[in-house]
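Hello Y.,

Per our agreement to keep a running log of every chain we model this quarter, I'm adding this entry. I've kept the format consistent with earlier entries: sequence first, then predicted structure.
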Amino acid sequence: MRSAWSKDYAAGALIACIGAFAVLQGQSYRMGELTRVGSGFFPVVIGVLMILVGALIAGSASYGATEAGAAPRQADWRGRGCVLAGPVMFILGGAWFGLAPATFGCVFVAALGDRSATLRSAAALAATVTVVGIVLFVYILQVPFPILQWPHD
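Predicted structure for the entry above:
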């Protein structure tokens, strides 16, 4: 019971600390107004939200504790590896091949971290997120990120 509580408490405290750091760093930038936000507005708002979420996680840590006689679960290294490899796939794929392959690779690899996921379900999820991402970031937000490109010297 103590182990589950301490992990949740530590996770909540870590999230709150990262949020506090974001608030402190964001205050060194111009905040602006609600109608015309400055560069410090978003980090401060996200930091405050992270502090609140961290406090909620740490505060509710004892509610999610396991029974004293429950067997400890083994670490899911496949899931952890896939979730960590996803952003790496996005960084490498984005730098070399563009937004579409990077997004597809990131989501596909991360989805395979779920033991109940099949190749078909991971591919369907990756394709859906890729289409939504392209529409959102390229066409709506007009982020200058090539959809497809071929690596050059």
